[in-house]
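Tutorial, part two.
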Amino acid sequence: MSSAMPHTSTGVRARLPRTVEELHTLIVAEQPNLSARLKLVAIYLVEHPQQIAFNTLAEIAEKAGVHASTLVRFANYFGFDGFSELQRLYKNQIIDHPSNYRERISQLKKAAGGNGEVSPALLLHDFAEGNILALGLLQQQIKPEVLNSAVQLLTQANEVFICGVRRMFPAAVYMNYALSQMDVRCHLIDGQGAMAPEQMKWITAESVLVAITFNPYGQTTTEAVQFAREKGAKVVLITDSELCPHTQHADAVLIVREADVRGFRSLNSTLCLVQTLCVALGYQG
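Running the prediction step on this input gives:
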């Protein structure tokens, strides 16, 4: 491990991050100090950990929209000798959680390469394998203590407000439906008919807001989080990145890495997490 120390705005760290989680924590802390190009790298690293583990420097640079030299500069900024040393953290994370992740990613690459022909069966294979991988990562990355905290917030709330717009709208609607079936007082904030202000105006300090938002983060959800904090309500945030601007305002943050296959992001992991919260809440009753 390199003896170089990463620069931070608050001083020099005693050691390099030893895990992906430690690195992401440092990235979040350092984000305001990063240049525009380094911020692009930070966002890609945080949102695509499995690609960082298995892809080449050139592939990662292309996907992140930067030059390969920018990846090296990013690694140097955080005290690593080179990008491969930083990348080793992501590879070690997979090694520490034995699975057939490597085989699955290899299969996805082979299927995507193919002979250029795209059949319905190939698409089914791609999406199924991508979602299996993402669900495996969900089990690995959601911390039991954070999940327990989110459920306790829901249990203690007088009523639950749920906000999810655009791509997250189906997850929010499902959660509202499931809780309603369990006789939990809940309200959906979706902004339809420009009614978002009226939908959220009954939030109080005894309420909890479940905000489901992925990049690009919807304005309606942003306004709901801000309003909830002003009213003293608790916020459970379901998002795709530690760099989501709402994390600092949330009482419980649940990070979901959805499958991204052929440029289409799934909802399966998010729906799985939402269903878990609802059923866990039911068992608390």
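DSSP finds 13 helices and seven strands in the chain. In part three we will examine how such features are distributed along the chain.
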